[in-house]
Design a protein that fits this description.
By secondary structure, the chain is of the alpha/beta class. The protein has a domain at 2-197 and 233-257 and 321-340: NAD(P)-binding Rossmann-like Domain (Rossmann fold). It is built from 13 helices and 15 strands. Strand 1 (3-7), helix 1 (12-24) and strand 2 (29-34) form a beta-alpha-beta unit. Helix 1 (12-24) crosses helix 8 (234-247), helix 3 (64-74) packs parallel to helix 5 and helix 9 (264-281) crosses helix 11. The chain binds nicotinamide-adenine-dinucleotide and 2'deoxy-thymidine-5'-diphospho-alpha-D-glucose.
């Protein structure tokens, strides 16, 4: 039985990853290490934790003693490091926390793995490693900076981070690569584009827009809305990590993306249209609306859900203009391709939010409201 340490799995992508892995591999054990920050929610994975195949430990990836204790107790075969401060806007407000978690936390895990996995030295003085172990770092396309109207991020594109968040993720990647070179540590890195799907925290664009529509609020679009992101359904990202972890070459970086570039304004308009369409097909969804005004047919009105809700607000500082991934390497070497077309994925995602408003209410409590007021009141 292979044992995985998965950090940050009470958050968006990590939670989707452990659900995917537990369903796909009946014979694995996963230990989740998560600090349960504002972005972590134990409820998201409560149904997965059975203390046999899936064990939860609340703790900080920066905690050396705890990391050593977990490696000694569970003898991990794999580490998959999702844990991070992940929101660009928050990194602009408080950069230091991003250095702490994203850089020092990653380096602490690398060292704990090194202490646990090294078996000796080879004739050149390099450490030798337990057969088959692997440290996988979950990274981001933001490490490459920002593109103009054309071109793609390749694995060879120079690193050029521009926000405190992306600078911290880049530093973490460089440490992972340094451990690969210096200690011959078996590592891999994936750099993925923007994910969307279930359990996405509503400070990020798509879930924030859905939440605001349901609450009858304005929809804040930064700048002129022409910034481009390359959207990938979260399960496709999980599948890519699974591929790289088990079949990727050690020491390598793999870009992950689905050639699905969209301007932010397109995403917001599509979300508006999709919510209206779903509420037309299934009027019961209208009960999720906070604003319940009746229309001429005696149904809850939805005609106000339109582009007039959009408000262009002050731009994000240093806002990267365009991200676009070239996924040729992972496709040709490992046969990974995205399986969920955006048109299907976005409907699936919005339907999930309409049917899981309890989850949103649980995660977006008082602290979220405070954050929202602070972040958006002076935009
Ligand atoms: P998230 O913010 O939803 O979740 C982060 C999780 O990490 C939370 O559960 C939080 O409690 C936990 N955490 C934070 N600090 C911790 C610490 N010190 N110790 C232990 N746990 C801690 O993030 P996400 O969107 O799921 O992103 C996961 C990873 O994927 C991040 O490394 C991010 O950089 C990367 N990534 C995200 C995207 C995206 O579109 N969301 C795309 C590419 C890469
Ligand atoms: O590209 C991968 C990255 O994608 C990950 O590394 C990050 O962890 C993840 O948060 C995400 O970063 P972005 O900054 O691209 O995601 P966000 O959802 O915050 O914003 C998406 C775009 O929408 C971006 O151009 C900013 C814009 N935006 C965002 C919010 C929250 C708005 O216009 N209005 C908003 O209210």
């Amino acid at each position: 039985m292979k044992t995985y340490l998965v950090t940050g799995a009470a958050g968006f992508i990590g939670a989707n990853f452990i659900k995917y892995m537990l369903a796909k591999y009946p014979e694995i054990k996963i230990v989740v290490l998560d600090l349960l920050t504002y972005a972590g929610n134990l409820g998201t994975i409560a149904g997965d934790i059975d203390n046999e195949r899936c064990i939860f430990v609340k703790g900080d990836i920066c905690d050396r003693e705890l990391a050593d204790e977990l490696f000694a107790k569970y003898k991990f075969d794999y580490v998959v490091n999702f844990a991070a401060e992940s929101h660009v806007d928050r990194s602009i407000e408080n950069p230091q926390l991003f250095l702490q978690t994203n850089i020092l936390g990653t380096q602490n895990l690398l060292d704990a793995a090194r202490r646990a996995w090294v078996t000796g030295k080879d004739e050149n003085g390099y450490p030798t490693w337990i057969e088959g172990v692997r440290f996988h770092q979950v990274s981001t396309d933001e490490v490459y900076g920002s593109l103009g109207e054309t071109g793609y991020f390749h694995e060879t594109t120079p690193l050029d981070p521009r926000s405190p968040y992306s600078a911290s993720k880049t530093s973490a990647d460089l440490f992972v690569q340094a451990y690969s070179e210096t200690y011959k540590m078996p590592v891999t890195i994936t750099r993925c584009s923007n994910n969307y799907g279930p359990y996405h925290f509503p400070e990020k664009l798509i879930p924030l827009i859905i939440k605001n529509i349901l609450e009858g609020k304005q929809l804040p679009v930064y700048g002129d809305g022409t910034n481009v992101r390359d959207w990938l359904y979260v399960e496709d990202h999980c599948k890519a990590i699974d591929c790289v972890l088990h079949r990727g070459r050690t020491g390598e970086v793999y870009n992950v993306g689905g050639h699905n570039e969209k301007q932010n304004i397109e995403i917001v308009k599509l979300t508006i249209q999709t919510i209206r369409q779903l509420m037309t097909e299934q009027p019961a969804y209208r009960l999720m609306l906070k604003k319940q005004v009746m229309d001429a047919n005696g149904e809850i009105a939805i005609d106000w859900i339109n582009d007039d809700l959009i408000i262009f607000v002050k731009d994000r500082l240093g806002h990267d203009q365009r991200y676009a991934i070239d996924p040729t390497k992972i496709s040709t070497e490992l046969g990974w391709t995205p399986e969920t077309p955006f048109e299907k994925g976005i409907v699936k995602t919005i339907r999930w939010y309409l049917e899981n408003q309890d989850w949103v209410a649980e995660i977006a409590g008082g602290d979220y409201m405070k954050y929202y007021e602070q972040m958006y009141s002076n935009r």
